[in-house]
Amino acid sequence: MSPIQGTRTGGRSARVQRSVHAAVQELLGQRSRSELSVPLVAQHAGVTPSTVYRRWGGLQELLSDVAAERLRPDAPPEDTGALASDLNAWAVQYLEEMSSSPGREYIRDVIAGDTGTANTGQCCGYAYEQVSVMLQRAADRGEPAPDADQVLDHLVAPMMYRILFDPAQITPERVDALVHELLDDQHPS
Amino acid sequence: MSPIQGTRTGGRSARVQRSVHAAVQELLGQRSRSELSVPLVAQHAGVTPSTVYRRWGGLQELLSDVAAERLRPDAPPEDTGALASDLNAWAVQYLEEMSSSPGREYIRDVIAGDTGTANTGQCCGYAYEQVSVMLQRAADRGEPAPDADQVLDHLVAPMMYRILFDPAQITPERVDALVHELLDDQHPS
C-alpha cells in the first residue's frame, strides 16, 4: 500500500474539483480570505455557483476540502537510518509546516468547515501513514518501537495541541524531548 | 490564586458583552447557527450592529468569544484523595464535555474565530489551571507527580487531538490508560 495517495484524476467530477480547488488557491494568493465568496470562486473556476453549492454546501466547507488537500504530505518521511532521528526529522518539519501562518490557516479551515469528520480524519490519516512508514522501517531494522497510536498520542497530539492552543510552548527542542521520552519508554526496564 | 475567574462585572463595556453573549446563547438555543447574523444578535441584545462590529469584528469572532466563555470550568476538579483518581475523574468528564456535540461546536468556534491566540490560549489556560489544582493537592499529599505541561502534553493533548481529528479513537478506557502511563513514568525506577 502506498502511504501517499494522489487525487483521483478521471471524470468530470474530478475535473470540477481540480478547477475549483485551483481557483481557491489562486484567489487566496491574490486576496484576503474575507474577500472570497462562492460566486467569485465559481467564476474563476469556470463553473456555476450552484455547482459549488451542490457539491460543497458553502464556502467554509470548500475551504476545508482545499485545506485537507494542501496538508497532504508530498513525500514519505526521510530515512535517516534510525527511528529516533527519523521521528525527530519528521516531527520538526511537521511542526515547522503546521505552525507557520499558512499551516495554521489550513488547520483552522479543515476544522472549521468539516462536515462530519472526513477532512479532519484525512489529516489524522496523513500523520498515521507517515508515522507507520517510519515504524515499519524500525521493525525492519529490529529496533524496539512504540505503535503508531502511541506516536500520535505522545508526539503528534502535543504538537497539534500547542499549535492550536498555545503556540509559544512548542519548539524544536521540546519536540526532541517528546521523541526521546516516547522512545525511552520502549526500552525494556 | 483562584483558578476560576468570573467575567468582569462593571461598566458599560461589560454590560454590552453580557447582553451580546446572552443573545448569542439564546439564539443558538432557538435556531440553527447558519441563521445567526450580527444584525439579528444585535437586535436581540438591544445594541446596534455597529457596536458588535466595532467590538468583535464579525460573527465568527463573536462566536469564538462566546465559546471560550462557555468552555470556562464552573468548579475546581473533584478531590478524590489521590492524583490518579483526581486526574481520571477530571479527564473523563473533560472528554465527555468536549466530545459532546455542543462541546465540539464550541471548540471549533473558539479555533475558527480566534483573532490571534486570546481565546484558544484561554481554553488551554483553563486546562492548565484545573490540572495545577490537582497537582498542588498531590504535592500537599507528598505524592510524586508530573508537572502541568507534562499532563497537558500527554493527557489533555491526546484527548483534544482525537476529539478534533479522530473521535472514534478516544474512549474513557483510553483516558484511563493515558493517566496510568503518565503516572507510571513518575515512579523512581
From TrEMBL, chains A, B:
Record-level Gene Ontology MF annotations: DNA-binding transcription factor activity; transcription cis-regulatory region binding
Domain of life where this protein originates: Bacteria
Start and end residues of each HTH tetR-type domain: 14-74
Keywords: DNA-binding, Transcription, Transcription regulation
Location of the DNA-binding region in this protein: 37-56
Pfam families documented for this protein: TetR_C_11 (PF16859), TetR_N (PF00440)
InterPro entries: Homeodomain-like_sf, HTH-type_TetR-like_transc_reg, HTH_TetR, Tet_transcr_reg_TetR-rel_C_sf, TetR_C
Protein name stated in the entry: TetR family transcriptional regulator
Origin species: Haloactinospora alba
